[in-house]
TrEMBL record:
SUPFAM superfamilies: Alpha-L RNA-binding motif. Keywords: DNA-binding, RNA-binding. Belongs to the HSP15 family. This is RNA-binding S4 domain-containing protein. It comes from the Bacteria. Coiled coil: none annotated. Residues 101-128 are annotated as: Disordered. The keyword RNA-binding applies. Residues 1-59 form the RNA-binding S4 domain.
Length: 128
């Protein structure tokens, strides 16, 4: 079975085209070698899939005949991703709390006035 179809079948990606794009971008490795979307997957191979800033480490246990339900996914793959990878993702979320929210863009005129008022009230100006 093709690697893109396998990743779609075990519900690693929502659509097969997304799985294909991940392979083309080099986010999927089979036995530490970048995999093209048409590369075949065999039982016992180790996969590394980069998704959402986490390198998932999977082992192929069996090849499903078609897309499987979420409860049956563990029959076809073994997830050996270390817990530290998920802890690292939590740290990234906490570090982003200090910045503006995504999509907020540049400060508006009102934001700029609020910043100026804050600086004046806290004596940040060096004019004195």
């Amino acid at each position: 079975m093709r690697i893109d179809k396998y990743l779609w079948a075990i519900r690693m990606f929502k659509t097969r085209s997304i799985a294909t794009e991940a392979c083309k971008k080099g986010h999927v490795k089979i036995n530490n070698v970048n995999a093209k979307p048409s590369k075949d997957v065999y039982i016992g191979e180790k996969l590394i899939v980069r998704k959402n800033q986490i390198n998932y480490q999977l082992e192929v246990l069996d090849v499903p005949p078609n897309r499987v339900g979420a409860k049956l996914v563990d029959l076809y793959r073994r997830d050996t991703t270390p817990k530290e990878a998920f802890d690292h993702l939590d740290l990234l979320k906490y570090s982003k709390d200090y910045y503006r929210q995504k999509g907020a863009g540049r400060p508006s005129k009102k934001d700029r006035r609020d910043i100026d008022d804050y600086q004046e009230n806290n004596n940040f100006n060096t004019e004195n």
